[in-house]
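Please decode residue identities from the backbone states below.
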């Protein structure tokens, strides 16, 4: 077998699924985790370079079991893409502790767990790529998403601090901040709602998961070896790189 060992958390759909397919098509060996829904490719494709594993990133045991499986069957993780995330929207005045905690636990702490487990082998190998998926909401804010925005903004500080910790071992840590992307969440909106959202984007359209995956593929490549601690906005100009 050839290619790097890549772990994509939260790859059952959308951006995570597009990332998994992109890495696999380029010859990498990809393990994709999902919490509840099996990735679509597992149902319709037969590809030995794509392996699915159920993993709840809020569980230390699940994360450890996933890494142990990967290391025993493929080798150490060389590229980590943290895509696992949820939304539980609501105005802060009526937000329950449980709703806040679930989003922080999945979107921020889950990333911490997956990244912490990857760091040791990467440091020993003196090589590694870590890409965290944040959101335009992290720096623009959005009413009803204080929990989501806090988690996604937290990823930026986390990544930049970690980038300084591991740079001497040739490990890069970067963040991608997508804007309005054609995912299941937007598909659930009616035409009027989608049109209103699209009207806010200077390029006048929604992005695609494949466009996000292409940027992540670049950040994981040898050509991006001198890029670390950066936040790459991919939002059609919506946030203008804030």
């Amino acid at each position: 077998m050839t290619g790097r060992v890549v772990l994509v958390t939260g790859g059952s759909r959308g951006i995570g699924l597009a990332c998994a397919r992109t890495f696999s098509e380029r010859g990498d060996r990809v393990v994709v985790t999902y919490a509840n829904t099996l990735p679509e490719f597992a149902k319709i494709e037969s590809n030995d370079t794509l392996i699915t594993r159920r993993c709840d990133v809020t569980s230390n045991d699940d994360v450890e079991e996933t890494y142990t499986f990967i290391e025993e069957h493929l080798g150490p993780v060389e590229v980590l893409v943290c895509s696992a995330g949820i939304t539980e929207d609501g105005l802060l005045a009526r937000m329950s502790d449980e709703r806040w905690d679930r989003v922080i636990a999945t979107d921020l702490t889950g990333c911490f767990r997956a990244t912490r487990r990857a760091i040791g082998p990467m440091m020993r190998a003196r090589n590694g790529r870590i890409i965290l998926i944040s959101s335009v909401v992290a720096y623009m804010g959005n009413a009803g998403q204080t929990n989501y925005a806090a988690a996604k903004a937290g990823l930026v500080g986390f990544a930049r601090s970690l980038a300084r910790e591991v740079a001497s071992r040739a490990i890069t840590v970067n963040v991608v901040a997508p804007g309005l992307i054609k995912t299941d969440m937007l598909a659930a909106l009616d035409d009027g709602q989608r049109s209103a959202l699209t009207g806010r984007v200077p390029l006048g359209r929604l992005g695609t998961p494949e466009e996000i995956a292409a940027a992540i593929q670049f950040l994981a490549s040898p050509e991006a070896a001198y890029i670390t601690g950066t936040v790459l906005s991919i939002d059609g100009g919506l946030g203008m790189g804030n």
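Observation: The beta strands are 5-9, 29-34, 50-54, 79-82, 128-133, 171-178, 231-234.
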